[in-house]
Automatic annotation (TrEMBL):
Example GO biological process: translation
Native source species: Streptococcus pseudoporcinus LQ 940-04
PANTHER family for this protein: 30S RIBOSOMAL PROTEIN S1, SMALL RIBOSOMAL SUBUNIT PROTEIN BS1C
GO CC, one annotated term: cytosolic small ribosomal subunit
Keywords on record: Repeat, Ribonucleoprotein, Ribosomal protein, RNA-binding
Region ranges (Disordered): 351-404
Cross-referenced CDD domains: S1_RPS1_repeat_ec2_hs2, S1_RPS1_repeat_hs4
Gene Ontology MF term list: mRNA binding; structural constituent of ribosome
Nucleus listed as a keyword: no
Protein name per the record: 30S ribosomal protein S1
Amino acid sequence: MNEFEDLLNSVSEVNPGDVVTAEVLTVDNGQANVVIDGTGVEGVLTLRELTNDRDADINDYVKAGDTVEVLVLRQVVGKDTDTVTFLVSKKRLEARKAWDKLIGREGEVVTVKGTRAVKGGLSVEFEGLRGFIPASMIDTRFVRNTEKFVGQEFDAKIKEVDAAENRFILSRREVIEEASAAAREEVFSKLSEGSVVTGTVARLTSFGAFIDLGGVDGLVHVTELSHERNVSPKSVVSVGEEVEVKVLSIDEEAGRVSLSLKATTPGPWDGVEQKLAQGDVVEGKVKRLTDFGAFVEVLPGIDGLVHISQISHKRVENPKDVLSVGQEVTVKVLEVNAADERVSLSIKALEERPAQAEGDNDSNNSEKRQSRPRRPKREAKRDYELPETQTGFSMADLFGDIEL
């Protein structure tokens, strides 16, 4: 009885809510048996009271001989024995300390670890304290799959702390936005129109490619991707590829940068005079047809125009009547204008004018001349003056020498 009374007296020195130091005696069956310093009272520290990770190995957290600081939760008396033990928690003590550290820290940025994807967002841990990041606050774009953040450590801003309600809300998006704003300001300070910069293809759309310039995404419109016409962005670049681009325009207020990829690569018209000259006869392919002629590709990226009047010696009502897209043709170069990026071509210049066509033309011209009504010849203007009546001339004076 005396020994039992001594045991109860020692137990009275330990109360729920106390923060005590304990030594780990043994680790077995997913729990650690400890003895509270200065009391001789034993306690039980389970894996659940060590960490929120249900799949963790307790041996990775404690081992025999370790000294740990724990929070006393409640007293446990054995059913079949007179032993008295206490359930203790290291996790809850750390959580209490974390809450104390969080009070008044709204707006600060802390490092958290993603622990579990939950409905509406992501559960995180900060110094043993469980927090929550709503899905709308995880990234600048809405994240549907939050599983990818589980196990990751990242910075988040404290939005709300309420220890009484066990409410701890954070935002990762604001950290990203602030970092992006700082990076954007730095990038814009270094950009200038006409400069050539290096970037990484961030994403592709139907209208172009967005290039990450180190905090600012610039757009290369589909028309500025290549010297070739009607190309798709994915046929020119790929996500993650590093490219050199030329800055066309900057709108810092709107956060927009227009870029050109083709401006940094040699164009098909560069040095075209050495590749093509007036009088050359070359092979080409019909690329497109219009009402006024056909565009024929004579060099990669260089289309020349065969005007409708240069297609054939015969009259052509519509180029589609005699040519088709993809058709191989032989053409003669009539003119090369590199400054205006224009080449004039002719198909009929390589064909001999049909003799029948010439006879028909002469006959037609003769018939036209014969069918024209002749204009009456004008009589030559006579150069004489009639006598004035006041001179006194009579008919006898004019015709006096004529015998009647």
